[in-house]
Amino acid sequence: MAKKPTAAAVTEYDILRISRGEFTAHIVGEMPLIFNRMAEKAKRDLLLGGGRKTAADRAQNLKHNPPEEYRASVYRNSGNDCATRLRFPAPGFKGGMSTAALDLPGAKKSEVGRLVWVVGTHVDLYGIPELKMDVVRSADINKTPDIRTRAIVPHWACSVTIRFIEGKLNTTSIINLLHASGLISGIGDFRQEKGKGNYGQFRLCDPDDAEYLQIKKTGGRAAQDEALQHYRCYDEETQELIDWFSAEIIRLGRAPAVETSGDDPDKKPTKRTRKAA
Fold first, then answer.
1. DSSP labels, the chain
2. 29 falls within a domain
3. Which domain holds residue 209?
4. pLDDT per position as a tens digit, 62-73
5. What is the count of structural domains for the chain?
6. Per-residue pLDDT reduced to its tens digit, 249-275
7. For residue 270, is it within any domain?
8. Does residue 12 lie within any of the structural domains?
9. Residue 251, pLDDT score
């Protein structure tokens, strides 16, 4: 006589409920931060295709417009109800922590990527931007040299709220990861993580840290709007290039002169001041 089939054994899984922790870090930059946002014009050319320019097109259009490229290089908050005009992508801090995990015992980059996240898409950034020009190499086969104009913030500060999965990580782990990230990775362009540069390094501080409070006081939205409109050159090499560019486009009748900011008591005066472009 055939046996009746028995019911399959039921397997029960005991899944624990995970909980999350939260920590707000206050940060002060120890090295200048370089912005490198892709300009809207470049995005539009990628979207629709810029097309190959003829010699006549190149003759009629400036290859570079430093003031315009400077203003286009930053991430911005819109409206006038924000604390700062400048902001920085939040994933930059998470990426720095993941990279730092590669050089720390007991931490794995993949786990940090899964178990840690920064609240919000962007972080408000305090500090006064300045215009910086550098000679760079293009990605073509000949490594063609070019001039790149970006905003650099010599003294900056921000606060970052980080959430994490408790049990695998705790507040002390997050503090250690952030501290290592500020030394090993940094944020922004030409940062410590890339090997050659050491820009974008930072330190953690208390909310009543004197430098942190001073940057927040003097580097808010109004001061940043002024610095973006009436820019100041970061170094002498940039100033020399801007001086030559301004004189040359006037000589060629291509555009009005560009503008630099007024005197800064904490910095040497620039060579001359011009009207806005």
1. -PPPPPPPPPP---PPPP-EEEEEEEEEESS-EE--PPPHHHHHHHHH---PPPHHHHHHS-S--HHHHHHHTSEE--SSSSS-SEEEETHHHHHHHHHHHTTSTT--HHHHHHHEEESSSEEE-BS--EEEEEEEE-SSTT--EEEEEEEEESS-EEEEEEEEEBTTB-HHHHHHHHHHHHHHT-SSTTBGGGSS--BT-EEEE-TT-HHHHHHHHHSSHHHHHHHHHS--BSSHHHHHHHHHHHHHHHHHTSSPPP------TTSPPPS------
2. yes
3. 20-49+62-252
4. 788 899 999 999
5. 1
6. 888 776 554 455 444 444 444 443 333
7. no
8. no
9. 81
